[in-house]
């Protein structure tokens, strides 16, 4: 089932809204929420628009729609199609309610009132096993039909492993830092090399220049 949901702004990772998680859920998902923050710091408008990231017993699913990232942490066994259908539902309602205000807000969780819709939609998208029992529907068939109609094709959605993703991200960060350092050191080396060349030219031609200067000075003094 969906355990936790957070909505972020793409440009700066500002949290806009979130589900109200109970103390037990909050404690159980602390590590996974920290991992999700590391992931979102690296997301840009050019990142994969939809992705599932596996981490231990849970899977983090995110969907980028315009300037907003919709993320949910689900149990590993929760169907991906349901997860992305759930995120799609959130994106449509959030865009309708707050789409023109997303870029202007400056404080975290400015749209905390959206947690009511998140809670209602989470109950609707409970694990599909709660909708059926022994292959027979236990609730109104219209509810299951609605879910089936809303399911999105997720065959092309990328699946990644959290550890590999974070390791690769850290490596890229280190490579970027190293590249910056190398460029800086290279610039210093070129500057030092130019100075050495200038000093060498001065040492080479200074005696000749001195002699020429005194010769010209002598000529000027002799014939003036």
From TrEMBL:
Residues 6-118 form the Longin domain. Residues 143-203 form the V-SNARE coiled-coil homology domain. It is found in: Endoplasmic reticulum membrane; Golgi apparatus membrane. The chain crosses the membrane at residues 205-223. It comes from Cutaneotrichosporon cavernicola. This is Protein transport protein SEC22. Keywords: Coiled coil, Endoplasmic reticulum, ER-Golgi transport, Golgi apparatus, Membrane, Protein transport, Transmembrane, Transmembrane helix, Transport. The gene is SEC22. GO terms for molecular function: SNAP receptor activity.
């Amino acid at each position: 089932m969906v355990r936790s949901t957070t909505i972020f702004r793409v440009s700066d990772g500002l949290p806009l809204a979130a589900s109200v998680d109970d103390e037990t859920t909050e404690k159980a998902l602390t590590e996974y929420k920290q991992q999700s923050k590391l992931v979102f710091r690296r997301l840009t408008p050019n990142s994969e628009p939809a992705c599932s990231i596996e981490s231990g017993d849970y899977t983090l699913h995110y969907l980028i729609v315009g300037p907003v990232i919709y993320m949910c942490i689900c149990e590993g066994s929760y169907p991906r199609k349901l997860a992305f259908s759930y995120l799609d539902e959130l994106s449509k309602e959030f865009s309708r309610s707050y789409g023109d205000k997303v870029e202007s807000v400056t404080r975290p969780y400015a749209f905390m009132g959206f947690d009511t819709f998140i809670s209602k939609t989470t109950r609707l998208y409970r694990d599909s096993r709660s909708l059926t029992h022994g292959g027979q529907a236990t609730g109104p068939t219209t509810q299951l039909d609605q879910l089936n109609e809303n399911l999105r094709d997720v065959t092309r959605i990328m699946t990644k492993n959290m550890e590999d993703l974070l390791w690769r991200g850290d490596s890229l960060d280190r490579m970027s830092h190293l590249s910056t350092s190398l460029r800086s050191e290279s610039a210093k080396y070129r500057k030092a090399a130019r100075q050495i060349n200038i000093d060498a030219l001065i040492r080479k031609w200074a005696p000749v220049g001195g002699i020429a200067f005194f010769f010209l000075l002598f000529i000027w003094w002799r014939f003036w």
